[in-house]
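Subject: complex prediction, re-run

Hi both,

The earlier run crashed halfway through, so I resubmitted it with identical inputs.
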Amino acid sequence: MTQAAEFQEQANLPAHGTEPDKGDWRKYFGFSTDHKVIGIQYLVTTFIFYLVGGVLATMVRTELATPESDFVSREVYNSLFTVHATVMIFLWIVPAGTGGFGNYLIPLMIGARDMAFPRLNAIAFWIIPPAGILLMSSFLVGAPGSGWTSYPPLSLMNGKPGELIWILSVLLLGTSSILAAVNFIVTIFKMRIPGMGLNQMPLFCWAMLATSFLALIATPVLAGAMILLSFDLMVGTNFFNPTGGGDPIVYQHMFWFYSHPAVYIMILPVFGMISEIVSVHSRKPIFGYKAIAYSSIAICGLGLIVWAHHMFTSGTPPWLRMFFMITSMIIAVPTGIKVFSWLATIWGGKLRLESPLLFAMGFISLFVIGGISGVMVASVPWDIHVHDTYFIVAHLHYVLFGGSVFGLYAAFYHWFPKMTGRMLNETWGKIHFALSYVGFNLAFMPMHKLGIEGMNRRIAEYDPKFASLNLLCTIGAYLLAISTLPFLVNVCWSWVYGEKASDNPWRGLTLEWMTTSPPPVENFEADPVLATGPYDYGMGSRATEVDVPFSDASDPALSAGPSSTLRAKPDPAVAVSPSDRVGESHNR
Amino acid sequence: MTGSTLDSAKTVLNHHPEEDVVVAHGVEHHDFRLLGIIVFLVAEGMIFLGLFMAYFTFRSVAPTWPPEGTPRLELLLPGINTAILVSSSFVIHNADTAIKKNDVKGLRLWFGITAAMGAIFLSGQLYEYFHLEFGLTTNLFASTFYVLTGFHGLHVLFGLMLILGVLWRSLKPDHYNTNSHFGVEAAEVYWHFVDVIWVILFLLLYIL
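This time it finished cleanly. Structure:
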């Protein structure tokens, strides 16, 4: 038996009869219900917001290059980091990972023609651009400046219009996220091709399932908090205002009930993508399929009961702190299972060290650092020491940038050929990786030390003794900003002039590679066939009972080609194993 | 293939389409909309759960609840309202039974009664609002009272509009029949949901 990829491809040979749909570029600006168009709409829109958030981050770092507040005023500085965080979380990582790659890949991976609710899908996308523009417009009336957490009573005290705009855009983006989650859950449960049980799904589908459940359960509670906060802000109720008998801690509980799971909403899809990429580019079966799949579900369940570890210094009673400390630390177990499984997959593999795998390995290394500092801050005494310092800033950026964004980049390099039919330039990809890896570590590694030494976050000025390390961080941030340019140029140039990609440039086994690049409108010419499991790389040398030839001149019905009888109801007379054959064939 | 992680007995190569349950003719794939509605209602339930939990916390943290000086809530009108809303859930179920027997007239009758009961509930609530002795910003209890009942009231209003929409559509001949009546089921499921939430709300605000 030959290689599994060949087997899977032969069983699903896409028809190249007509030139693949060149595509009208205008469809990307309209209300398309094609999940692939919507996926690309998500990715392009969110990437634009990523650039906006990046500009804001660069301004924050410019201000912090010196200890005095000399670049912008304190108020503007507050707005800068507030909007930076909101954009990066709600308009880039969440919608890019779930809406973007989820939409594009889930139906293809499970062999469906589209999502379960295509119109709902388009609505969920079209909520995002207005919400993003709304958030940006807040700069015209005085942007919100109380951090992305918007803790009352601080958030009730200054800049009402900006704060209201922030609440409205978060409500809109939350709605979009819930609608997308409903769609994913129904699609994954109901639209898989026959023969693909849950345990035959690619791991990205498992990750998206867990993510969607989290978004479905956690996001509404944030919406509830936003509704109450807007009443406090606009009508003068006192839900969260202690001067009127309210309780600001209730807001913190409601907010973190969403916003901690939001971390997993941002990282779980990336976990799924890394599982795909590591296996394909190491040419090895994924190590511990079920362990990775079920650990996603475990993270989903545990992720809902750890939120108060953000509130160890908010007067949380000690017994409750103990509970949340233990649950938070337990999360490291399913996460560790994933990390070790990826390492075991790479171990001894036939590595193809191109951009997707480079970014995936970059992801693993940086995410592990963020994960370990996460276990540190989960312990109450340590957290009390570093709460609201740059240690937290370092930790969260190692998880969200070193983790999520590096993973998203890996996914861009991996699936770009499928989405556009063109390859990305490899040299520029490597330059992009090197610049961002160095820039990232330069920008965020020193922040650990700054935080431990006591530099507070969210303040425009700092003690001059922190000046040299902060300058280093700023230089790293500039390098990180510059590192985006090679990627942008690469994508824009390759999309138009890049080398044509074959249907399956990475020799993958999952079903998205079993159609043309880019896929036709309803994804597959005929219903796809599972001839191998999603990660059966290099299993060809194992003993097999059945050997199906790919072409057989004397008896085409016996081969696994496109006209194979294996695709239809098997005729007992041409069963692949001679001992199974019954009766006389009608095809001979 | 022992070299594969697939269970070969379950793959398409060994799949017999004719063994699948045949769904209604002309339907391209199974109708997942009702499942979608139910999944969406999980999210809706979580908003209410979040607000209930906030209410519970306010209540348990406050030294006295409701805060001193809050007038006692009248129980008679809300009690009647509750009875009306709860019984409307049984009424709307009759419509579902009717349409499954292809009885569009029955559907219109029972949906009409449900809509009337919903409207009575809403007017009763508005009447209560105008006759209460506290306003939205009087104190924390008053605020939670108005926001919780108001948010629920909006849901009742939306459910009422769904019911009226179904009634409007049922005027078209054969729009709903035994095999195709997703709109009826969706409105019914939503109405049951709104009803259950009200029961919890009533217990929380008026009884406890």
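Chain A has one domain: 37-513.

- K.
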